[in-house]
Amino acid sequence: MKDEQSIKVGLISKSYKFKKQNYLIHEAKAFEWYMKSAENGNAEAQNNFGDCYSNGIGTEKDEVKAFEWYMKSAIAECAEGQSNLGYCYENGIGTEKDEVKAFEWYMKSATAGCAAGQCNLGDCYENGVGIEKDEANAFEWYMKSAIAGCAEGQCNLGYCYENGIGTEKDEVKAFEWYTKSAVGGHAEGQFYLGDCYCYGIGTDKNFTIALEWYKKASCNGFDEAKDKLHKLGIFY
């Protein structure tokens, strides 16, 4: 007769397999419904269908098909689809790299109010992607994105305040925006918030809290946080 621990392990294993199988079934159904709606011309569904191909949700990954559906969505004026299409052009996903086209689609997305598009447009202005560098414009678009609740935009806005990019340096505001980004689950924001507590940027030094945020950033896949912990002698 199996001991109690073995029975528990067996039940957990079966439960995991069931949940995983159930999850895959839901993904497959989501793919089918997005396909039907996308083929009927729904712009938002076309964007979501592109996401399925981009991330392998309910189907095999296919960057070319992802690009094609993002294009359909973007032309149909879905702001999220426009942002995703811009990202494809910027990074050569499913198409040839074209930073000018990336900028153009980010601009359409941003002016339509998409927070991710606003963040990506800010990045174009900050780093000269498809347009001349313009730190003031970068700051303005990061601000719009951050206010709209984009965690990446909040992190980038915090970085602008910390380093005086497109605005006057303000470490307190940097800390505040890093906090919003970190709480929103953004790994880079969590890392920079850890730095704030570690070095007293816009707040009092608190090494214990700094470690907590470095660990969260590391768990979310931010390699710089993992390197920081290793340098501090902490292997997490």
UniProtKB/TrEMBL annotation:
Belongs to the sel-1 family. It comes from the Eukaryota. It holds the Pfam family Sel1. Coiled coil: none annotated. The lineage of its organism: Eukaryota, Fungi, Fungi incertae sedis, Mucoromycota, Glomeromycotina. This is Sel1 repeat protein. PANTHER family: ERAD-ASSOCIATED E3 UBIQUITIN-PROTEIN LIGASE COMPONENT HRD3, SEL-1-LIKE PROTEIN.
